[in-house]
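hey so i finaly got around to running the thing on 4-diphosphocytidyl-2-C-methyl-D-erythritol kinase from Neorhizobium huautlense. pasting the sequence first so u can double check i didnt mess up the copy paste, my clipboard has been acting weird all day
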Amino acid sequence: MTEMPVVTEVARAKINLALHVTGRRDDGYHLLDSLVTFCESGDRLDITASDEDRFSVSGPFADVLGAPADNLVLKARDGLRQRLAAAGIITGPVAIHLEKNLPVASGIGGGSADAAAALHGLLRAWKTDLEPRTSNALLLSLGADVPMCFAGTPLAARGIGENITPLPQMPAMALVLANPLIGVSTPAIFKALERRDNPPVGALPASADLADWIDCLKNLRNDMEPAATRLVPEIAAARAMLDAEGALLSRMSGSGATCFGIFGSFEKAKAAAEALRRQRPDWYFCATNTMSA
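ok and heres what it spat out for the 3d tokens, dont ask me to read them lol
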């Protein structure tokens, strides 16, 4: 470990292209049917060998994170170390630095993406792996979004998020992310839902043609968006701004408040983001591409 180079992972922003709430379990967890993709943009984690465990944070949104003890990166580190120790694998101390580039509590993965990236990086740093059943249990113990963030490729997520199906036919997309920098409480949004028995997503395009996917997505929705917009009206304003800049489709991601607009090219997305920053310099805008399978 003392000779270990820096291990770097990108915690990519998670985008819910569609999110249907289809039911609720007896334990209170909501059942979802969601189409998910991931952006090139995200937080960054650097992991190095150290004389003792350390954790530090920088970046534009570092100051709005909660207490370090509550950070999912540390819970991921400790959970992974515990499971490896149970398998007789010794792990050395590490210094983890998180560069927080994504808004907090914004519906694009955030802490879940950071936790997933930490697990990937630590497995590389410690040069080991987990048995699939143990790995799946660890991922779900960290949160319902962590399994899909760990997968990190276009997918359909069902159940509470743990039932994952890869979608290799989903094309890469040019996006603009827009967030009014107002945190949204996911439990508050679920509590405000008017219906929890909505129909599932249904059939998806068999091709990677962007036009086919836009047509499909237009017939889908985010069932959390109406409740979120009632609590944060700026969500509707963000979507209207994206539409006015020529988005082929706009929608809220996750429980908000981040919205995304799909554009025909990265050049168009970049120009739109620059125009939106001039309109609202106090908001967050980011032009990015999504990952292909």
